[in-house]
Amino acid sequence: MARDEAILRAVAADLVPPTLCLYAWEPACLSLGRGQPLADVDLPALQAAGFDLVRRPTGGKAILHVDELTYSVIVPQAAPHVAGGIVESYRRLSAGLVRGLERLGVAGLVADQRVGNRRLAGACPELVAGACPEPVEGPVCFEVPADYEITTGGRKLVGSAQMRAEGVVLQHGALPLYGDITRICPLLATHPAPARVRARATTVAEALGRPVTWDEAADALAVGFAEALNLHLNPGTLTNEERTWTEELRTNKYATDAWTGRI
Predict the structure, then answer these.
(1) What is the pLDDT of residues 16-74, one digit of tens each?
(2) What torsion do the CA atoms of 113, 117, 121, 126 make, to the nearest 10 degrees?
(3) DSSP state, 140?
(4) Residue 221: exposed, middle, or buried by beta-carbon count in 10 A (0-12, 13-18, 19+)?
(5) Confidence band, pLDDT 50/70/90 cuts, at residue 215
(6) Closest CA to 89 of 98, 99, 81
(7) Cα–Cα distance, 262 to 257 (Å, whole number)
(8) For labelling, which of 19, 146, 222, 240 has a CA lying 20 to 30 Å from the CA of 45?
(9) What burial class does residue 238 get, using C-beta atoms within 10 Å of its C-beta: 0-12 exposed, 13-18 middle, 19+ buried?
(10) pTM reported for the whole predicted model
């Protein structure tokens, strides 16, 4: 999380180009949305399971980052790929995700539906700082699709959220690759019903009927973003400034109880 915000700073300062990051988590981690209460988490259960806890700078609800691929897109707000409001930019960026998933062989993808009618225009600063396309019911991100999020067979496949700061858009998203999508349920204070989550969310392996590795998914998404958004992607590493800002943000923000327990 610190690294993604550090890249946002660098993009805002025009030190680096717009950036697509693809990564996994070690150890596995539960992440809360920017405005989600810490009380949503069953902390003893989380500790017993051996999972870490972090709060994202983006919005949305809880995600268990295990057996999945996380992406982040960090781009100036004036760029055509994120032009317009939050909902409009979700719709544009989802084209890259859809193309990547199609390359993996996932069929029946839907990413062009509205599920609510509340508008985000003129929303409060907290919501603009970290938002989903449409507020999500319950504590689990994958329990309910939001506007223009990606589903297959009526079940949510990608969960995404945004923040906007310093004239830059940071969009995070998680793509479950395999495993039990309901593993998050006992880690939350309300202990959501596994059957409800399983009925509303799925994994790439379940959608395809075969295992998918992280490398396979990452290659497909990178090509998907490049093709759908007409991008030329060059592999890169963090600059010295980004490394310095990452450590600063980790130490002073993301690794602190003050940030994680802010709500």
Answers:
(1) 999 999 999 999 999 999 999 999 999 999 999 999 999 999 998 999 999 999 999 99
(2) -90
(3) B
(4) buried
(5) very high
(6) 81
(7) 8
(8) 146
(9) middle
(10) 0.87
- Per the annotation, the verdict on 132 as an active-site residue is yes
User: Which secondary structure element, helix H or strand E, spans residue 242, and what is its range?
Assistant: helix 240-249
State the DSSP string of 76-131. ETTSGGG-SSHHHHHHHHHHHHHHHHHHHT--SEE----------TT--HHHHHSB
Q: In which residue are the tokens 């980790």 written?
A: 250
Buried residues in 181-199 as b, exposed as e (16+ CB within 10 A): bbbbbebbeeebeeeebbe
The count of domains in the chain is: 1
pLDDT at 115 exceeding the cut of 70: no
Q: 232: exposed, middle or buried (C-beta count within 10 Å: 0-12, 13-18, 19+)?
A: exposed
- Which residue range forms the structural domain that includes residue 159? 2-260
Q: CA 21, CA 174: separation in Å to the nearest integer? A: 12
Burial (0-12, 13-18, 19+ Cβ within 10 Å), 108: exposed
Q: Is the pLDDT of residue 141 over 60?
A: no
Q: What is the CATH number of the domain that holds 93?
A: 3.30.930.10
- 110 residue type, one letter: V
Catalytic residue, candidates 29, 132, 141, 185: 132
Question: Could you please report the per-residue DSSP string of 180-232?
Answer: -TTTTGGGBTT---HHHHHHHB--HHHHHTS---HHHHHHHHHHHHHHHTT--
The first and second tokens of residue 12, run together, are: 């805002």
SS3 47: helix
- Tell the residue number behind the tokens 């709060």, with chain if given: 55
CA distance 212 to 67: 10
- CB-facing half-sphere around the CA of 81: CA atoms within 13 A: 22
